[in-house]
Amino acid sequence: MNTEYYIARRYLLSRNRKFFSLSTTIAIGGVFVGVAALLIALSMMNGFQNELKRRILAGTPHIIVRRYFNEPLSKYREIEKRLEKFSFIQGTAPFLIQKSIIKNRERMDGVIIKGVVSAQERRITAVAEKIQDGHFELEDGCVLGIELARNLQAQVGDTLIIALPFGQQPGFLPRAKKVILKGIFNFGYYDYDATIVYMDLKDVQSLFRMKGQVSGIEIKVRDIYQVVQYSKLIEKELGYPYRTQNWMETNHAIFGALKMEKIITFIVLTLIIVVAGFNIVGTLVNMVKKKTKEIGILRSATRLTTVDALRNE
C-alpha cells in the first residue's frame, strides 16, 4: 500500500472507521447551516423587495413632472410635445389628483380622486391589467381598488357619489357627481387598493372646476434604474418652475427600510458563519495538539527517508 495514502487514511478516519469524527462533522455542519441560512435569508429578502417593487411600480409612474408648490399645469400639452425629443421616454400622460369623499348608499370613505385619460394611462401604469372585476372604462364612471370596494360594499354597476364637501366660497353648496362603478382593480398593495379612485380627466376637471388644468404629467421610461439621470435631463429641458419626482423618491421610506433590514440580516448571519469558522479552527487546533507525538514521528520518518534517498544516490 502507498505510504502517503495509508497515513492520510489513518488520520482522516476516526477510530470507528468513519470518514469524519463527531467533532469534525459538527464543525462542518455549523458552517453548512450558517452559509445556508445566509443564502436563504438574502434570497427571501431580495425576492420580497423585487415583488414589492413590482407591485408599487404597477401603479406608480416612473417620473412625474409638476410645478413647484404643486400648482396646476395649464399648458401641459406643450410640455408633452417638448418631452418627445427624449428617446428614453416611452410614454406620457396628464393626470389630476384631488382629495374627496365617495359614498355608496349609507357607507362613505375619504379617497384620492385621480383623473386620467384612459388611453394614455394604459401606457404608463398597469391599472388596466390589474382589473379583477369589470373593465377599465372611465366614461361617466370610475374604477377603484378592491379594499375600497369592500369598505363601501360596492359592486360593479353600482351608482356611487363623488362629493366635494366644501364650496370654494362661503355660502356655496357642496358639489357632487354620480358615477357608475365600471371596474375593481387589485394591485396587491393596500395603500393603492384602499384609497385611489380613477375617473375620466374631463369629469374631474369639471367637478373641481379646473378646466384645462392638470396636477402634472406622468412619464414612463425605458430603464427604471436611470430615473435620477433622466430627471435631471428633463428638469434642464423644462427649466423653472417645473420639477420632477421619480419613483425612488416617492417610495424612499419603504425601500430605505428594506435596505436597512437586508444589511442587518446580512450582518447577523455573517456572525453565524464566523462562529462556525471558529468551531472548525478550534477543532483543528485540538486535533493537532492531541497528535503532537504522531506528527513528530512523521517528521522524523520523513527526514530518515530523505537521508536514505541521498545515500542511495
UniProtKB/TrEMBL annotation:
GO terms for cellular component: plasma membrane protein complex. Keywords: Membrane, Transmembrane, Transmembrane helix. Residues 24-234 form the MacB-like periplasmic core domain. The chain crosses the membrane at residues 20-45, 263-285. GO terms for biological process: lipoprotein localization to outer membrane. This is MacB-like periplasmic core domain-containing protein. It comes from candidate division WOR-3 bacterium 4484_100. The lineage of its organism: Bacteria, Bacteria division WOR-3.
